[in-house]
Amino acid sequence: MEIKESKTTARSNGKTAKAENTNSNTTQEKQTTTNLTSDEILQEERKRQIAEAAYEGMLGPNPVVGINRRGVFETLYGLMSQALKEPSLFFQHTFHLWSELFEVLKGTSKIEPDKKDARFDDLTWKYNPFYNRLMKSYLAIRKELNDWLEKSNMSEYDKKRAHFVMALFTEALAPSNTALNPVALKRVFETSGLSVVNGMKNFFEDLVNNGGMPAQVDKKAFELGKNLALTPGSVVYRTEMIELIQYKPTTEKVRARPLLVVPPQINKYYTFDLSPNKSVAKFLVEHLGIQTFVISWRNPTAKHRNWGFQDYIATVEDAIRVVNEITGSEDVNLTGACSGGMTVATLLGNLAVRNEKKVNSTTLLVSVLDTHAQSDNGTPLGLFATDDAIEAARQHSSKHGILKGEDMAKVFSWMRPNDLVWNYWVNNYLIGNPPPTFDVLYWNADTTQLPAKFHSELLDLFKENPLLRNKEEVNVVGMPVNLSKVKSDMYFVAGITDHITPWEACYKSIHLFGGKKEFVLSNSGHIQSILNPPGNPKASFMTNDSTQPADPKEWYKGSKLNEGSWWLHWAKWLVARSGEEKTAPAQVGNETYKPIVPAPGTYVFE
User: Among residues 145, 260, 338, 385, which one is catalytic?
Assistant: First the structure.
């Protein structure tokens, strides 16, 4: 079996790797845009840009705390109070704003939108005097408000909260979100008013079927087992909590040691088997000859309210037992992603305390074990995680038995309003286009729920952050855990533009474990770091074979840039730890664990 190496080049200190959006459906898009008119091509390009803007801000590990309305209003009150506390600073910026607005009126203002701000890409904003002044007035007001806030004597934590709350309002009031949007007005004339009809239709459909939020994807374009989750396999084991899927070997020889994939409990498993050209499962089975199993978590309802973290961990250990019995292997290789990575890490720490060797090697994908790292890195997930907010979130899920996925999705959308709300507001309602048809966005919108007990325990983990105490045996949801005793080989993957699990926080996890570690930094965002197949010309990743300092910035300075997908790098690492080759089994399962239903199973539809 030949695995081609990626080209590697040395990088100079201080030079940042270029973060490129990856894994767009290139071949599919070329086929789709063939024979389209120029206007239709522009519309398709707009949909693609909207989808790519959303990739880095998707649900991922859903916010289990949420944004407490009381916290938002307290922050607004704090902003108003700040104006009274420092009136000279407030009036100084007010005077500066009026001066800038006067320059805008004269047409001499130098203020310009950020080059990455696609809201004002249409040339009308630049060359039409009215629109240019409208845009610059908005930009001037937004800039002055943020400058005033930054120069105030508020604490850094309060400033971050205030910037976030202020952005909720200033981004909502952008002139691009109104019926004056020149792209929308042009579309009205181009379609003889049909875009207005379509926009109203989209609006009322979302009001009824999407909780009043703009739809991010056309769900009618996808169907599991038809154009998603197509890799052949079967459910070979089922419990109340999981369906265990084994993919059918397609090579004459397979590796003796199997791989078990543990996806996040708060997303559905088929991110690992999305479309055929972006399927991790297909890559493992067809190109590496790896005996591949994946857990498909059941989407819990109120009757599963007592499912807790221990139950999920015990279920993973039970799945390992079944995989071993089917394959005849004494141990497995594990892969965990996001919250699935935290589950895997906790299981490893518990097995180490028990001195049981059931796992040969582990891969952790975009997994943060430091629950405080998100707010430290400037993302707003933890900004409103006060004790009161945490207890309010706990009481909410306890009352209903679950935390609904759509509720978490709404919260997360407002974390990145331009990418996940207003982009779609303009596209769906003002322009009258249907939402994009991208498989990753469909998966992201296919939300799951959290049992009340598991949600409560995640909140406790968020508060206590116990996994960082790796030099000692700690109690995690009633289980003894010691990560420093984990001596097996580990492979870590993070994304340089990941706003959900910041790469610096992912890197810090490597120092919690005691074995040999490999860290890879992909040039993409959260989900794109996983969906990064070979053949993408924009793909690249960083490695550092010489040192693993405590400071992630020091690691980055000494790293090397590798062209291509990290999948090939991981493939060599994984194959080397997957045992000898043996004749592939004729079918999945065995006499004890016979195939139940074909993949993608039944739980994924719940």
Answer: 338
